[in-house]
UniProtKB/TrEMBL annotation:
Major subcellular site: cytoplasm
The protein's name in its UniProt record: dTTP/UTP pyrophosphatase
Sequence similarity: Belongs to the Maf family. YhdE subfamily.
PANTHER family: BIFUNCTIONAL DTTP/UTP PYROPHOSPHATASE/METHYLTRANSFERASE PROTEIN-RELATED, BIFUNCTIONAL DTTP_UTP PYROPHOSPHATASE_METHYLTRANSFERASE PROTEIN-RELATED
One Gene Ontology molecular-function label: UTP diphosphatase activity
Keyword Transmembrane helix: no
One record GO biological process: nucleotide metabolic process
One Pfam family here: Maf
Keywords attached to this entry: Cytoplasm, Hydrolase, Nucleotide metabolism
Cofactor(s) the protein requires to work: a divalent metal cation
Lineage of origin: Bacteria, Pseudomonadati, Pseudomonadota, Gammaproteobacteria, Enterobacterales
Coiled coil: none
One cellular component term from this protein's GO annotations in UniProt: cytoplasm
Role this protein plays: Nucleoside triphosphate pyrophosphatase that hydrolyzes dTTP and UTP. May have a dual role in cell division arrest and in preventing the incorporation of modified nucleotides into cellular nucleic acids.
Amino acid sequence: MSPIYLASASPRRAELLTQLGVPFTRLATEVVEQQKPNESPLDYVTRLSQDKALAGVKIAPDNRPVLGADTIVVIGDLVLEKPLSPRHAFEILTQLSGRSHQVITAVTLADSLRITTRSVQTTVTFCHLSPERISQYIETQEPMDKAGAYGIQGLGGNFVREIQGSYSAVVGLPLVETFELLTDFQS
Ligand SMILES: Cc1cn([C@H]2C[C@H](O)[C@@H](COP(=O)(O)OP(=O)(O)OP(=O)(O)O)O2)c(=O)[nH]c1=O
């Protein structure tokens, strides 16, 4: 696999790309994450992954492909991103308790001429969480930098009764779809 740029500060995305065997250099980009009125969750996560990749293309020193990705948690029509505070994390986890939600991850590859995006939707079902259990989890700090205020790869995995779809997409980068995207883009 040829080397690429990764426009992401997420340690999970770097680990997953390493697991795929893709050599990469990280680029530091800043993208404002704000859903527009009437923008669907899928359109929103797609746009963010594209904005991240295109912000990387702008600062990349050469024309290697740039990968950008975004992950959101969706319950009903409501998009849950990273919690703004421990109190907000408590509200989010209370909403997720005892029911199913969707996790959508979009991945974009772009260079100065082309842009391609794949999105993956996974359904995750949580067991019932008591307020005490939620508070204890928040004390670990694990929820604070994660969409939906949990990490399936960490202690948040203890809450997952069922997952239908891609585990790696929930963690932040769908391995199969990213490999296919890279293969198609570089062929
Ligand atoms: C649901 C879930 C999300 N997450 C993480 C993946 C993402 O890093 C984060 C969602 O935030 P994002 O805004 O997608 O990504 P980021 O800000 O961490 O990184 P960057 O924009 O620089 O690429 O939540 C987990 O690690 N485990 C989970 O189970």
